[in-house]
Specification:
The protein is an alpha/beta fold and 271 residues long. The chain is built from six helices and nine strands. Helix 2 crosses helix 5 and helix 3 packs across helix 6. The mean pLDDT is 95. Belongs to the PNP/MTAP phosphorylase family.
């Protein structure tokens, strides 16, 4: 892994020159529009970077975008990887390690997820304050490389409390409906059954999705502070459950994205 990471980092550095990103951003399903606000200096397709996994989803473009946002040098992953695409957890989280080695100091993560808390509604935002990992594999299993992080990383604060409070204040100021809650990460790709939604609510989850947690685990392993936000694209309420399509989910994410972008841009300014 160390050689592969070094190969990727060296390849990227040769193409971005002296550009040193300080903030990394992972853009979730239907949430790639933030790139339009970045003053882009460089773009690299995942397929051109040695050892970099390639997104297989048509709505994930698979590019690293380098540039300036809110006065900060950023690198954005326009397209993330998922377990259901057939990748293992080390492949899924490989890009996070690359971003850290490129020099980022904070990681911002976005995703589309389903609401479980009946006080939340489709189209709302939820800042993640904690998570429940229901993925069948952990990205830290196997050999631990001390150069990357400790064998047993602490997870008492996987999401930075001070960033959560600042984001909530921004949302209140902008009159954006934004909650904070617990995110459950499952494999997908199918959406949940009525009984599964009920179970997830019982164990303490406010929203459910198919990503984010593996990347957050690896970020914490490498000592990288994290802020994460979900766009709630559907409602997993067993009492009133309705069928939903991926097209509807992407449509809702796209409609709510300007609110998420507003919060992220202002929050990045404060980091």
């Amino acid at each position: 892994m160390l050689k592969q990471l070094n190969d990727s980092v060296e390849f990227i550095k040769k193409r971005i020159g002296d550009f040193e990103p300080e903030i990394g951003i992972i853009l979730g399903t239907g949430l790639g529009g933030l790139v339009n606000d970045i003053e882009v200096t460089h773009q690299l397709s995942y397929s051109h970077i040695p050892h970099f996994p390639i997104s297989t989803l048509e709505f994930h473009s698979g590019k690293l975008i380098f540039g300036t946002l809110s006065g900060k040098k950023v690198v954005a992953m326009q397209g993330r990887l998922h377990y259901y695409e057939g990748y293992n957890m080390k492949q899924i989280t490989f890009p996070v390690r690359v971003l850290k080695l490129l020099g980022i100091k904070t990681l911002f993560v976005s995703n589309a997820s389903g609401a479980l808390n009946p006080a939340f509604k489709k189209g709302d935002l939820m800042i993640i304050e904690d998570h429940i990992n229901l993925q069948p594999e952990n990205p830290l299993t196997g050999t631990n490389f001390d150069e990357l992080g400790p064998r047993f990383p602490d997870m008492s604060e996987p999401y930075q409390k001070h960033l959560i409070e600042k984001a909530l204040a921004i949302a209140a100021k902008e009159q954006i409906t934004c909650h904070k809650g617990v995110y459950a990460s499952v494999t997908g790709p199918n959406l949940e059954t009525r009984a599964e939604y009920k179970y997830l609510r019982i164990i303490g989850a406010d929203a459910v999705g198919m990503s984010t947690v593996p990347e957050v685990i690896v970020a914490n392993h490498m000592g990288l502070p994290v802020f994460a936000i979900s766009v709630l694209t559907d409602e997993g309420f067993p009492e009133t459950l309705k069928a939903v399509s991926v097209e509807e989910i992407i449509k809702t994410a796209t409609e709510a994205e300007p609110h998420m972008t507003n919060i992220l841009k202002q929050l990045i300014l404060l980091v």
